[in-house]
C-alpha cells in the first residue's frame, strides 16, 4: 500500500465523528469476543453443563463399581448427603445384591468404614483406595427391598482432588 493511499484513508477516518469511530470500535470488539468464544467453546456458545446432573453423576461413579447385571438406573444426580447420588433397581433380592458388595469389599480396592444393622436392608459406608493407598471415593451404599426385587442407592463423593496442607 502506498503512503498516499494510507494517508488518504487516515484522513477519511479522522474526518468521521467521534461517535461513529467509537461505535465501530465497540462493534469490532464485540465481534472479536463472539468469534473467540465460538472458537473456544465458552459462553455464550457452550451448552449448559450441570456438574451435579445425571450424566455428571454417572461419569463420576468409581471405576469398576459393580451393579447387578439386570440393574437399571432409576435416578442420578445431586445427592442430599454427599455430592452425587445414583439409584438403581434390580429384580435380585437384597441378600443376592448384598453378596456383590461383600465381594467388592474382599477385593482390596474398597475398605469398609461402617456396617449398619438395618434388616431387611443392607447398609454400609465404604471408601475406595487408589493404587497409592490414598482414598479416592467415599460412599454410602443402601440396598433395600422393593416390590419385585431391590433398590440400590449410592451416595458418594470424590476425595482424590482434596489436599490438606498443615502449616
- Share of helix, binned: 25-40%
Task: Compute the number of helices.
Answer: 4
CATH arch. level architecture of the largest domain: 2-Layer Sandwich
Number of domains: 2
Largest sheet properties: 6 strands, antiparallel
Text of the CATH class of the largest domain: Alpha Beta
Order of helices and strands: HHHEEHEEEE
Per the CATH scheme, the topology name of the largest domain is: TATA-Binding Protein
Low-confidence stretches: none
Approximately how much beta-strand content do the residues carry?
Answer: 25-35%
Strand order of the largest sheet: 1-2-6-5-4-3
Shape: rod-shaped
- Termini separation: 63 Å
Summarize model confidence as the mean pLDDT. Answer: 84
**Mind telling me the C-alpha Rg?**
29 Å
Question: What structural category do the secondary elements indicate?
Answer: alpha+beta
Q: How many β-strand stretches?
A: 6
Structure notes:
The structure is a single chain. By secondary structure, this protein is of the alpha+beta class. The protein has two domains: 3-40; 54-158, 2-Layer Sandwich (TATA-Binding Protein). The protein contains four helices and six strands, in the order αααββαββββ. It has helices at 3-15, 18-40, 54-59, 94-106; strands spanning 72-78, 84-90, 110-116, 122-129, 135-146, 149-158. It has a six-stranded antiparallel beta sheet. β5 (135-146) and β6 form a beta hairpin.
Amino acid at each position: 500500500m502506498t503512503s498516499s493511499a494510507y494517508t488518504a484513508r487516515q484522513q477519511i477516518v479522522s474526518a468521521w465523528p467521534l461517535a461513529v469511530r467509537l461505535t465501530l470500535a465497540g462493534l469490532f470488539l464485540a465481534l472479536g469476543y463472539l468469534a473467540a468464544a465460538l472458537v473456544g467453546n465458552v459462553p455464550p456458545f457452550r451448552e449448559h453443563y450441570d456438574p451435579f446432573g445425571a450424566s455428571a453423576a454417572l461419569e463420576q461413579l468409581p471405576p469398576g463399581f459393580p451393579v447387578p447385571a439386570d440393574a437399571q438406573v432409576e435416578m442420578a444426580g445431586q445427592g442430599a448427603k454427599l455430592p452425587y447420588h445414583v439409584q438403581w433397581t434390580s429384580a435380585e433380592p437384597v441378600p443376592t445384591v448384598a453378596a456383590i458388595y461383600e465381594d467388592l469389599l474382599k477385593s482390596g480396592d474398597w475398605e469398609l468404614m461402617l456396617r449398619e444393622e438395618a434388616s431387611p436392608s443392607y447398609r454400609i459406608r465404604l471408601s475406595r483406595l487408589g493404587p497409592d493407598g490414598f482414598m479416592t471415593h467415599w460412599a454410602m451404599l443402601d440396598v433395600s427391598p422393593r416390590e419385585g426385587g431391590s433398590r440400590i442407592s449410592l451416595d458418594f463423593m470424590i476425595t482424590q482432588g482434596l489436599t490438606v496442607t498443615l502449616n
